[in-house]
From TrEMBL:
Organism of origin: Knoellia aerolata DSM 18566
GO biological process: glycoside metabolic process
GO MF term set: hydrolase activity, acting on carbon-nitrogen (but not peptide) bonds, in linear amides
Pfam families reported for this sequence: PIG-L (PF02585)
Name assigned to this protein: LmbE family protein
Entry annotated with the keyword Zinc: yes
Chain ranges passing through the membrane: none
Length: 249
């Protein structure tokens, strides 16, 4: 892993929003840092919901997909509950085979119209994460599709069948990307690190199948959030979620 380099200090993310939707590819994607911010938001009374495009059924080498999918779905629901999220929905795309395209955009746009969030949080869709780590194919497809689905959700003439289903257009105010090598904002999560670790630890079957040398949740989550604090360069901030933020109105 390359040592991350940071640019100018980040701005604190304005938290004048009432609701947020997290859109990711797999169970556990939110738990690598973003869950700390979610814990902060739900504690403040904001409504946060999750939408996962797969059930992570290809993510456990020792467990066939038909068995792994329900296990990982249950683990994600338990994980979400740790940080105050009760509404967790899943798409029906195949883990490891998520393809960018109209079907993916439509599914995400439908969920945006259904939940009507002020803020949408997804993952970075470039080839590499911060620190030079290679990004995974499903992450790239879902991140890019979310960019387009945010626009699709606000235009009634794109996917007009969604209106027929009862989902009127909705304009998202803010779009944010976790894991970006070029963040613009941060969320101070110094008092939410333990909850974020507990949230990742709820993925018991998944974590137990990882190689022994893979960092444990109580090592990995603090490290990610400490890197976010380094990027933030803000006095008194020891742990932060760094986000690349686009304001849309």
């Amino acid at each position: 892993m390359d040592a991350p380099s940071f640019g100018p200090p980040l701005e604190p993310l304005p938290e004048d929003f009432a609701s947020a939707l997290c859109v990711v590819a797999h169970p556990d994607d939110i738990e690598y840092g973003t869950a700390a911010a979610v814990a902060r938001w739900t504690e403040a009374g904001k409504t946060v919901t999750y939408f996962l495009l797969t059930r992570g059924e290809a993510g456990i080498d020792t467990m066939p997909p038909g068995e792994a999918g329900p296990v990982r779905e249950a683990e994600e629901r338990a994980s979400a509950a740790v940080v105050g999220v009760t509404e967790v929905d899943f798409g029906n795309h195949r883990d490891g085979n998520v393809e960018y395209g109209l079907d993916l955009r439509r599914d995400i746009a439908r969920e945006i119209r259904r939940r009507r969030p002020d803020l949408v949080v997804t993952g970075h869709y470039g080839d590499r994460f911060v620190a030079g780590m290679l990004n995974q194919a499903d992450h790239r497809a879902v991140g890019l599709a979310t960019v387009d689905a945010v626009a699709d959700a606000g235009n009634r003439w794109i996917f007009p069948e969604l209106v027929d289903e009862g989902f009127e257009p909705w304009n998202v105010a803010v779009l944010a990307f976790a894991g970006s090598p070029q963040p613009t904002h941060y969320v101070d999560v110094g008092d939410k690190v333990a909850l974020a670790v507990e949230s990742l630890e709820a993925h018991t079957a998944y974590n137990s199948a990882l190689p022994d040398e893979f960092p444990k949740p109580d090592q990995l989550v603090p490290m990610i959030l400490e890197m976010g604090a380094q990027a933030a360069q803000a006095d008194g901030v020891t742990h932060a979620l760094a986000l690349d933020v686009v304001t849309r109105r």
